[in-house]
DNA sequence: GGTTGATATGTTATAGAGTTACATTTATCA
DNA sequence: TGATAAATGTAACTCTATAACATATCAACC
């Protein structure tokens, strides 16, 4: 058990499910889910938090799967491009997607105390941003929505999360 | 005249107004609006687009106002902390605020073709994100909202903007 | 009006994030 | 099986950002 979306859950089965979904998606779309790509996703899923590229690279290096930055960045590019992982811009870090395969615009709630990250759903075309865009004639192709604050566990005085 | 929020405007007077507002705010709040800080804000206002810290630093260096990264970063920290400038996370770049002094959560529309940036208003406590936050008990303190796409000028076939 | 404590600046060095370029290998598919 | 495209290995480098410490400047109080 670990923290996801600030709640407890069965980590092993959530990891298995995500990997299975990605495998299925890759098979269906003829994408190469190579050992490095799979391993990077596994690392992100296992830690279940935002990780820097070099932190991931350290793990890869320990396992003999590649030691230079491009190895990690290329795998991350693949995962991000296909929606299997997301980049948290505020942290220059990456996190596994909680529902890979589905087309979506993620929004993140990031705890500034324990670094836990929850993925929510954004709809950039609606709300303020959508209105501002359509008012000015701007066409939104991609949106980054990230909120920084305190997660429920850390609000309850406890820094005993994470 | 230049491009702001994808529209033409009187650049000189917009710059004067912003500087005056910041000066007034600093006087009222006993903040030191020092030469370096002022110059960095002027540079951002003059270019009226997102600029990297090192691009700003190059200008400072040419003027003998400091040549090392911390000089630029410290000035930018001051400007960002007090809401006189904003950081565009997706670009690792900074831009002058279009309405300094007012407490607000900015949202940005970034053109991927000409790099023009328009500042809009976000209300993180409302909409999807706010609902996701209150549902889980997360308290939002700060939000980053950035949309990438095509500005009206670039949509009209013309890459003739910026 | 000088002393003190806080705030701002100058400078060196280094850490962290990401890319370019090119050689080599491994898949894919005709 | 041979041609082509996709993926990996590796070295070198650029860009972004911070740590640490010395010096200078400001604010304000006796």
What does this structure look like?
Chains A, B: Keywords: DNA-binding, Metal-binding, Repressor, Transcription, Transcription regulation, Zinc. Chains A, B: One of its GO terms (cellular component) is cytosol. Chains A, B: One of its GO terms (molecular function) is transcription cis-regulatory region binding. Chains A, B: Zn(2+) binds at residues 111, 114, 151, 154. 2 copies of one chain form a homodimer. With 162 residues, the first copy, chain A, is an alpha+beta fold. Chain A has one domain: Arc Repressor Mutant, subunit A (Orthogonal Bundle), CATH 1.10.10. Chain A has helices at residues 11-29, 35-47, 53-62, 69-81, 127-136, 152-155, and strands spanning 2-4, 7-9, 85-88, 93-96, 106-111, 117-121, 139-150. In chain A, the strands form 3 sheets. In chain A, strands 6-5-7 form a 3-stranded mixed beta sheet. A two-stranded antiparallel ribbon of chain A has the order 1-2. A two-stranded antiparallel ribbon of chain A has the order 3-4. Chain A is globular. The A-B interface holds A 5-7, 89-90, 107, 109, 111-112, 118, 120-124, 126-129, 132-133, 136-152, 155 and B 5-7, 89-90, 107, 109, 111-112, 118, 120-124, 126-129, 132-133, 136-152, 155. Chain A binds a DNA duplex (30 and 30 nucleotides) through residues 30, 32, 34, 36-37, 52-54, 66-71, 73-74, 78, 92.
């Amino acid at each position: 058990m670990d923290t996801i979306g600030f709640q407890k859950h069965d980590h092993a089965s959530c990891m298995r499910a995500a990997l299975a979904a990605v495998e299925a998606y890759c098979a269906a779309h003829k994408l190469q889910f190579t050992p490095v790509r799979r391993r990077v996703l596994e690392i992100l899923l296992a830690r279940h938090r935002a990780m820097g590229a070099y932190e991931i690279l350290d793990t890869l290096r320990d396992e003999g799967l590649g030691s230079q930055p491009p190895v990690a960045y290329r795998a991350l590019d693949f995962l991000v491009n296909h929606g299997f992982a997301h980049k948290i811009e505020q942290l220059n870090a990456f996190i596994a997607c909680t529902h890979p395969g589905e087309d979506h615009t993620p929004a993140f709630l990031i705890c500034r105390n324990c670094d836990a990250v929850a993925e929510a759903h954004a709809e950039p075309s609606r709300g303020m941003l959508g209105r501002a865009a359509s008012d000015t004639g701007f066409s939104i192709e991609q949106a980054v929505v990230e909120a920084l604050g305190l997660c429920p566990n850390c609000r309850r005085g406890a820094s005993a999360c994470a």
